[in-house]
Design brief:
With 435 residues, the chain is an alpha/beta fold. Helices cover 45% and strands 15% of the residues. The longest helix is centred in the middle third of the chain and has 22 residues. The chain binds pyridoxal-5'-phosphate. The site of pyridoxal-5'-phosphate has 17 residues, from α11.
Length: 435
């Protein structure tokens, strides 16, 4: 399979090249040049356990790996990435509403699937004689932890995580700074935008480039998107198996990587009806769908911080698939939820379902609650839970008035010693810190 740039299909690459590059040379994003179509009958209903997901990943992703030097390794890559479950839990007695829990990985957010899949691919693309690859990651929270976990102790790789000092939650900071070994964490005296700027400057810096091979593992990388389509496939096949109806998903959305994977799964023939994007107060996408005018904005800080994106990169991929706004409007719907409603929804659903949502998941739960009753009962709705509430204890515990239980894997991480250095938001500081 060839992958082409969203901007100019003349920029085509094989899978390995697309994964190593991240971005196409013209600044566009790689998308598949063709769409295999699957029949739900042929895929069966393997379930949502880790092993079933790995098997489904092999069946679904084989055409995308065809012709690549990664093709013979697909089964091993899938087994490594899908080593935990994505349970689909019912929330009502009629099976009209369920939650897809994507937070059972090592850092308790959905990003573990993509980061681990990408790491498993890149590890197999490296020759033993290659120089160490340094992954530079700017993070406002979840990405840094997932990438650090995925590359920790992998020979040939080094990770440098840059996060804004004092602007991530205490639990998130522990997750960024607990690794040691080949992972280093830098608390940047600045904002997330400073961290991102530093990473961009580092990539352009001849002095740094001479000393090390730099790469990024951010969410525009195809290697993070493809595996995400697999859990949507598994969940929709499970719903189809149980009710003979397609599934509709409500997805907490920021950079739109997770949502795009769901749209791609539907494009591949999976039984998916509606896809609804739940944004926080960063409402560029809902406004675009309403007005037809694209206006990116500076991001604003919200309780659902991993979704604080004013100019989502993956919108470009969505528009590549649906260039006409009217078609796009029938493909996805979007709504926006402010902090006040996030808080209220966390309280209300704790009362109603006895479940604790993280602030991101709460946006999806709120968007569901706003649907008219006839729409709620016309579909099989799935709320996508993108992170475990324990990562956001500081926000949630005061709202529900009791402690949030911490999963064992997360608790073990939080016990490890904190290792970090602090740097000024300047390239010289990063240069000498990396040296
Ligand atoms: C990254 C993240 C999101 C947003 O996902 P996108 O793919 O950027 O849209 C939502 N929730 C959580 C918990 C995240 O970490």
């Amino acid at each position: 399979m060839r992958f082409v740039s969203t901007r100019d299909p003349a920029h085509a690459a094989g899978l390995a090249e697309a994964l190593e590059r991240g971005l196409a040379p013209d600044g566009g994003l790689y998308v598949p040049s063709e769409w295999p179509e699957y029949s739900p009958e042929a895929l069966g209903a393997p379930g949502t356990g880790g092993r079933a997901l790995a098997g489904l990943a092999v069946a679904m992703l084989r055409p995308f790996f065809a012709g690549s030097r990664l093709a013979p390794h697909l089964a091993a890559i899938a087994a490594e990435a899908f080593s935990f479950d994505a349970p689909l839990e019912p929330l009502d007695a009629l099976g009209r509403l369920s939650v897809l829990e994507l937070f059972h990985g090592p850092t308790a957010a959905f990003k573990d699937f993509g980061a681990r899949f990408l790491a498993a691919c890149l590890a197999r693309l490296r020759a033993p004689s290659d120089r160490t690859l340094t992954l530079l990651v700017a993070t406002s929270g979840d990405t840094g932890g997932a990438v650090a976990a995925a590359f920790h102790e992998r020979p040939g790789f080094e990770v440098a995580v840059l996060y804004p000092k004092g602007l991530v939650s205490a639990t998130q900071e522990r997750q960024l700074t607990c690794w040691g070994g080949n992972v280093r964490a830098f608390a940047v005296r600045g904002t997330f935008d400073d961290c991102q700027r530093l990473v961009k400057e580092a990539f352009l810096d001849p002095a740094l480039r001479e000393r090390r091979v730099l790469s990024s593992a951010n969410s525009i990388n195809l290697g993070r998107l493809l595996p995400q389509a697999v859990y949507y496939a598994a969940a929709s096949l499970a719903i189809r198996q149980a009710y003979r109806e397609p599934a509709s998903f409500i997805i907490p959305a920021g950079n739109l990587g997770n949502s795009l994977a769901c749209v791609w799964a539907r494009r591949l023939g999976l039984p998916i009806a509606e896809v609804v994007l739940a944004h926080n107060a960063n409402r560029a996408v809902p406004d675009f769908l309403r007005t037809g005018v694209w206006q990116p904005r500076p991001s604003i800080a919200t309780l659902a911080s991993a979704m604080d994106v004013g100019n989502p990169s993956n919108l470009e991929r969505l528009r590549a698939l649906y260039p006409q706004i009217d078609r796009l409007r029938t493909a996805v719907e979007a709504d926006t939820v402010d902090d006040e409603h996030i808080r209220e929804r966390i309280r209300a659903d704790f009362q109603r379902f006895g479940r604790t949502w993280c602030p991101h998941t709460a946006t999806a739960a709120e968007v569901y609650a706003r649907l008219p009753p006839e729409r709620r009962s016309a579909r099989r709705w799935v709320l996508v839970a993108t992170a475990h509430a324990a990562k956001f204890r500081e926000i949630i515990e005061p709202l529900i008035g009791r402690p949030v239980a911490v999963p064992d894997s997360l608790a073990r991480l939080l016990e490890r010693p904190v290792l970090r250095s602090e740097i000024a938001p300047q390239l010289e500081a990063l240069r000498s810190a990396l040296a």
